[in-house]
Amino acid sequence: MSNSLKVAIAGLGTVGAGTVELLSRQAEIIKNRAGCEIVVTAVSARDRNKDRGVSIDGLTWFDDAVKMAQEADADVVVELIGGSDGPAKATCEAALSAGRHVVTANKALLAHHGVELARMAEQADKSLQYEAAVAGGIPIVKSLREGLAANGVNRVLGILNGTSNYILTRMRNEELSFDEVLADAQELGYAEADPSFDIDGVDAAHKLSILAALAFGSAIDFGGVYTEGIRHISLMDVQFAQELGYRIKLLGIAAKSDNGIEQRVHPCLVPEGAAIANVEYAFNAVEVDCDFADTIVHVGPGAGAGPTASAVVADLIDIARGHRVAPLNVPVDALTPMATTPMDQHRGGYYVRLMVVDQSGVFAEIAAVLRDHEVSMESVLQRGRAPGEPVPLVMTLHETRESSMNAALSEISALDAVDGEPCMIRIELLPA
Ligand code: HSE
User: Fold this and answer.
1) How far apart are CA 252 and CA 267, in angstroms?
2) Residue 166 lies in a domain
3) Under a CB-based contact definition with an 8 Å cutoff, are residues 185 and 166 in contact?
4) For the whole prediction, is pTM greater than 0.85?
5) Count of H helices and E strands in the chain?
6) What residues flank ligand 1, with Cβ below 6 Å?
7) Is residue 148 domain-shared with residue 289, that is, in the same domain?
8) Is 207 a catalytic residue?
9) Residue 100 Cα to chain centre, angstroms
10) Which of 17, 248, 391, 406 could form a disulfide with 52 if both were Cys (CB 3.0 to 4.6 A apart)?
11) Domain residues for 76?
């Protein structure tokens, strides 16, 4: 084993600075565990003079991350630039072409180009490691690729976006509206460069597409992930869900179905006693249902400097140890196409909240539409009394096909007595 593993870091934001700090503060532990020192030799970022709270004195500075990936005195390039294309992609490609290992925290890049990059890494006989890309400090990539490697996976399900979970938690605990919590969530430093990625489900979908590939031995299919965010969730829905014994969570779910694999990110009602219902604020959770190990639940911080740097450095330690697994769990040539099931074939229970004019006969009209589409009602709640004015009407529906639910909802929303668009949230009946 050589005396050191030399590392070049592209991107010195929260995670980059956290990685430099962790490598310095934990140098002794890391050396003992890795079998050699792990030293940063070069860095690249936008602004050389910015105060990042860590010293970069003595490190070779590059204005251009791609040039650094080609020329730095480094065994590994750590890509922490972000973005699915542009400099992040060019830096990883340049590093692998130059015969260097790559560590990245970039879920967008992997969601869009993970298969190409994995192929490049295999051809270059180098590692492509990305523990920090999914669920921050939770070692879920290692869990799927190694700890659970002997299992067939039936379902991976998780809270994959801390920002959304933080918003939904504070709405429920403090009776605040979505807009009141959004700004606070973004100030916490967990939000994506484009914050709509958090609240519109895109960030969770990036991560889910990676988990699905690892779980099912299929090529990453980000385009096949049904994606819906939390903008339309109102405080009223959070409170009705609670009254019915549920909590609302933005979940990413990749699961075997009768005719393929469902990949979906959307808000869900989960029973309040389910493990994942109690994962609060910016925490993430990933539940893996396996054939031999049964259900394994991982919970922890999904973002932030410390947890994410911990994941980056764990990857570096694996490389220093000479420990390598196929980036996508199986060699790229053995990946099968992802047989994504279209969302309209999904079967499940549903929560529907309508605003209906408070007058006789309205409920009968709605019930008739549900009957016509063979959608069976489980419960109904109506609160308030405002003759002639809209009041909320909440229903839960037994398991049905999504196409039937959608057809019924489009007829219901066209009824004169129904005001505005219905709010429909899928129910995920996880064991309590
Ligand atoms: N924006 C992400 C989140 C950060 O809120 O979870 C980690 O990917």
Assistant:
1) 9
2) yes
3) yes
4) yes
5) 14, 16
6) 136, 161-163, 190-192, 198, 203, 302-303
7) yes
8) yes
9) 28
10) 17
11) 4-137+308-334
pLDDT in tens, 234-260: 999 999 999 999 999 999 999 999 889
CATH number at residue 144: 3.30.360.10
Which residues are paired to 427 by β-bridges? 269, 349
Q: What is the pLDDT of residues 40-84, one digit of tens each?
A: 999 999 999 898 899 999 999 999 999 999 999 999 999 999 999
Residues 79 and 186 in one domain: no
pLDDT surpassing 50 at residue 1: no
Query: Nearest C-alpha to atom 7 of ligand 1 is from which residue?
Result: 303
SS (H, E, C) 95-125: HHHCCCEEEECCHHHHHHHHHHHHHHHHHHC
Which position among 89, 126, 207, 249 bears the catalytic label?
207
User: Quick check: 216 and 329 in contact, CB under 8 A?
Assistant: no
Query: How many angstroms separate the Cα of 76 from the Cα of each of 86, 145, 317?
Result: 20, 21, 11
Which pLDDT tens digit goes with each residue over 83-116?
Answer: 999 999 999 999 999 999 999 999 999 999 999 9
Does residue 339 belong to any structural domain of this protein?
no
The pLDDT mean for the chain works out to: 95
Looking at the structure of the chain, the number of domains it has is 3
Q: Best substitution site from 109, 134, 161, 308 to test ligand 1's pocket, by max atoms within 8 Å of Cβ?
A: 161
Q: Is residue 120 part of a domain?
A: yes
Answer yes or no: is pLDDT of 269 > 50: yes
Alpha helices in 332-401 (DSSP H): 362-372
397, two tokens: 């529906």
Buried b (16+ CB within 10 A) or exposed e, 150-183: ebebebbbbbbbbbbbbbbbbbbeeebebeebbe
pLDDT one-digit tens code per residue, 348-402: 999 999 999 988 899 999 999 999 999 999 999 987 777 778 899 999 999 999 9
| Token pair 């009968």: residue | 364
- Residues 222 and 184 placed together within one structural domain of the fold: yes
Distance CA 113, CA 115 (A): 6
- Are 207 and 241 found together in one domain? yes
| 47 within some domain | yes
Amino acid code (one letter) for 364: A
